[in-house]
Specification:
The protein is built from two helices and no strands. With 87 residues, it is mainly alpha-helical.
Length: 87
């Protein structure tokens, strides 16, 4: 009789685990659908609008910085001789 009781207990545990797996699979499927909906361009635009984000305006070209007429002397590193510019 003891072995039969163990089998019944093990079967109940297996049935409980199978039910838990079914619940987890259903939840996973629901979360995958929710994620797919959240990743649509319309959902992203709604989220951005809710966060007060706006589309950037047209980007203008930034002018280049002027190059100095005379070379800038290098800063000597600690313990190293200063560069002479001779290659």
């Amino acid at each position: 009789m003891y072995v039969q009781g163990e089998r019944i207990t093990a079967q109940r545990a297996a049935d409980g685990l199978a039910a838990d797996i079914d619940v987890a699979r259903t939840k996973q499927r629901d979360l995958v659908v929710e994620l797919a909906r959240a990743e649509t361009p319309a959902a992203i635009a709604r989220g951005a609008a809710g966060a007060d984000l706006v589309e950037p305006s047209e980007v203008a070209a930034v002018p280049a910085a002027p190059v100095p007429a005379t070379p800038v002397p290098p800063f000597p590193s600690a313990g190293l001789p200063a560069a002479t510019g001779v290659g």
